[in-house]
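Hey, weird one. I pasted the TetR/AcrR family transcriptional regulator sequence into the form twice and got a warning about non-standard characters only the second time. First submission, copied straight from the form history:
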Amino acid sequence: MWKYFVEATAQIIQEEGVPNVTIRKVADLAGYNSATIYNYFSELSHLVFFASMKFLKPYTDAAIQVYREPGLTAQERYLRVWEIFCQHSFENPQIFHAIFIADLGSQPEELLDHYYSVYPADLIAVPDELQQMLGTPNITQRGLFSLELLVKEGHLQQENIAAINELTLLIWQGMFTSFLNNRSRYSPDEATRHTVRYIREIVQNANQMHLADEAVQ
């Protein structure tokens, strides 16, 4: 029953877009009344979250390929995954908003755990270091997991990564919000190129920027 509603929501997203998802449409498509949905989902945003996760696989698959490429340093891998994240988020802003930015209440981690318990195949063959990152919808935690790998290879100092993470996320969020709300004239490719350029400059020059004193504790 849970899957019926998620798959109906995914179909509406694919055909009409996230803003056009309503409880009534989902119920009608699934063949049940609206009240039944609330036996399985606390609110519409949770249903949209689960359905949106089904559209995240192209990004996940592309990120996995980066982790399988031989010879990349942690920094090269970090920047490449950021580039892929930007490409997919600017091409599918409503999907990424539903997963990473929308207000889901106090239980986003529980929602993600439940999703992977129902669709475990989505985590098959995911490298351990990437699986840790994919295991949380908290974009701040995702960034910190990735930056820890740069610390291990000596690219960054441990005391700088909180500030680096905050700066990189603010850059993406600012560009993404403008793009999502049609306040930017950039194409997805242009938005990706500019965002990644700023992130690259921060990461490559972080150890000379004395960020630790300004990091939010």
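That's the output from the first submission. The warning seems to come from a hidden character in my clipboard, not from the data itself. The first helix runs from residue 2 to 16.
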